[in-house]
Amino acid sequence: MEIEKKAAERVGISYLGVEAPYTTFSAEELGKAIEQDPDKIKKGLGIRSMKWPAYSQNNSTMAAQALYAFIQKLEKDPELKKKFFEEPPRRIFYATESNSDQSRPDAMSAIRMVCNELMSESSDNRRYVNVLRGCDVMQVTFACAGAGLSLGNAFDHVKANDKSSAIIISADTSVYDNARAPNAEATQGSAATIMWVTRNPKLVALNGDTISGTANLPVSDFTKFGDHRPLVHGKFSEIMYIYLAAQAFESVEDHYAERTGHTILDDTQFMVTHVPFPKQALYYNSALFAHYIKLNGNKALKDAVAPQSDPANNLMNSVRFTNIVSEIIEKNRGLPEVEFEHAVRSNELLQEYMNWLRSLRAKPETELFAKSLHIAESLMIPSVTGNSYSSAAVVGLASTLSNADLETLHRGLVVFYGSGAISKVIPLDIVARELEKNRYMNINVGVGDEVVYLTAEHYKEMHEMLLMGEAKRVMSDVDLYEKDCKLLGGSDKVPPGFHVNRYNRDGTSDAFYLRR
Fold it and tell me: H or E segment at 51?
């Protein structure tokens, strides 16, 4: 099947950037701080470290850094710069679930920082400032799915508007209060991302042989209603994640089979999923593998996974996860939400199926399936940044593209999930040549001597401040930069990039760009 089409007819991503704080807690220090076994954090959850912004940095400064790094990349690449001004962005989507201002997107603060810095450098940068100031700016908030929903809308915008592009920025910092989210403190983190969506994309293109898939279900598996501290229903949320991601995937799969006659998983070389913690991607992989076994019909594979004598054989051959949950939904329509959650969690067949999926994870066949989809490579950067909410799946995509051995025209799927709940699955083709992928990406998460490792003692103060909410955390009579100098042991330890000295109660702030 010929999948290479006229490039000008396709839309996709021409640039992808990731920014994360340099201030980092190792799994060992995090374990000490929250009184959890570091081995459980590393091996049980797949987390190597967790990043949080220090006092003078936050979601806005990370978003600004991502946007500024993109413009710096354009300045160094004449071809990209020419494309930017020939197809200027007309929309900026800002995906977050931790916005500090209830009246406008924090992206406006980020744009202001970048425009001020650009104009202080050279009046020639006014061209960039004028483009940014001519954009619609809109915030997209749906838990961790905001970037995926923005990406789908950006594709639609670019398809419908010739000579126009779009920018998607995501920025989030996850923090949990043990009283509202028991045992979740190990799955915190922070990162920002940026994607530039264009025609004739340079990095990845929307797969033209199928559609993006979406599924939603109004549930409260995770909420910040009335409180910026998340209330989390962990096990229930895991079930909703797998269910809605599977439904969204199946719509992509059905359309692909109708268009091509192929099973999409047989033509898929990489899979990226939302990463609240790295092992969650492997949990979804086992559900996907169970689905693949049913479709594949390969007797040898089925016998290896669950032979006739295995009680799981009936689950593998006769039971479909999405059907179980859909039947529970149908039987319990009209019930109060609390009773519906109980009906889902107490369903014996569902419990049996979830237990089988847990045992399936350890099967060598499941591990080979994950290897064929380069899932380990998608987790390399998320295992360092920690949970970055709306940025998580985009960080996973960047991790895959920068670490996996993938070639031009290899196909993949990106699975976004947002509690509340919605999932979006977007099929992508790699269009960049192997040696050019890094030309269209910028990953800045701190490496080597750039990383500033913090201790368990630092964690307590930073955690308490983050639990106050972003606005209260940074509104202070104390200079935030000076506070960072004290926290990190000197001005030479403060990471480069955008910083804020002070946020004022009238919404103004004093920001600056620190160079090294």
Answer: strand 49-51
